[in-house]
Amino acid sequence: MRAGSNEVDKGFMGYRRPKGAPGVRNHVVVLSSVSCANGVVQAIGRACPAVKAITHSEGCGRAIDDALIIQRTLVGLGAHPNVAAVLVVGLGCESLKAEVLGERIAAAGTAVEVLGIQAMGGSQRATAAGTAIARRMLQGAAAQRRVRCGWEALTVGLECGGSDALSGITANRLVGAAADWLVARGATVVLSETTEMIGTAHILAQRAADEALGKRIVELIQGQRRKTEHYMGERAGLVISPGNMDGGLSNITEKSLGCIVKGGTTPIQELVAYGTAPSRQGLVLMDTPGSDVFSLTGMAAGGAQIMLFTTGRGTPVGFPTVPVVKIATNSRMYAAMADDMDVDAGVLAAGASLDSERDALVALLGQVAEGKATRAECNGQEMVALHTSGPAF
């Protein structure tokens, strides 16, 4: 199946939802509303290995701004297109009530049930009740069938981690070409990692769909620069990892110039907050941290059904409910970490055609959308981290 063929141009087979975009997966999620419920969520996950047990460290002890971000993110994860049903497990005395999460997830059209550990009389009773609910939800999900969906229904998150000097030349360039192909067919692509846009504000602003959006982009990136300088002082220009340096990068601007290549060449249509679903199709910026797992979580909460993740040093990171396609910047690392990589973009450095490799990546994207497991999925790489900006109390 190649890009440009009738088969690919028809879109993909996905799971229709009562509301919103279709899913490329059909997961049942068991979600904690507060960290105190994590043990029960994990126990249900052990009893029902087919569910996705999502736990986190939040739910209490945060100021209003962070509490709202956490709530928005958890609702987005529960209401995700790749999720068929959700069991929300709470303790009973937390700030972020399981009932509130359940109501907001249900409002998005997802089947939801809520369970409280204290109300059930303790962990063992809650685990038994939750296991029965999860098994019933799994049976319901198994009865659903895929239907034809157009590319315009797809949102793809773009991520890079463990970058090297080839990132902007091979893998990010390949993803940018795929992003342009998707946008031309009505899809949405999300470029994240605000820290890794430092030094490129003027370039991104020129690509904004209108002047007001361009101004907001500059304000966001310059604000991130000031924050970085406040915390790191004269080392602010070196906000890159030791692995980035070993891979041939020298400073954040150099890394950023390669990072934004993932977004392709189309106009930027929108700038959205962390964990917020885009309201416009096309290329969208999301304000996320540069840290990979926080960024993936934000884009997942914003509804991205698939992620394209480029890496030069090699990283196995994946996400519980979203297939993450790993794209190696160089052939040496691709061979060394074959168990974790899906695509070798290093062939571009050896003279391979960008158009041909783009077509192959789009074909793979279609296969993943229809159920082909990525390496991160095969390896059970399921990591979640909720972004907060203030102190815990």
UniProtKB/TrEMBL annotation:
The keyword Electron transport does not apply. Residues 14-141 form the D-galactarate/Altronate dehydratase second domain. One of its GO terms (biological process) is D-galacturonate catabolic process. InterPro entries: GD_AH_C (IPR048332), GD_AH_second (IPR007392), UxaA_altronate/galactarate_dh (IPR052172). Residues 152-389 form the D-galactarate/Altronate dehydratase C-terminal domain. Keywords: Hydrolase, Lyase. The keyword GTP-binding does not apply. GO terms for molecular function: hydrolase activity; lyase activity. Transmembrane segments: none annotated. Belongs to the UxaA family. This is UxaA family hydrolase. It comes from Desulfatitalea alkaliphila.
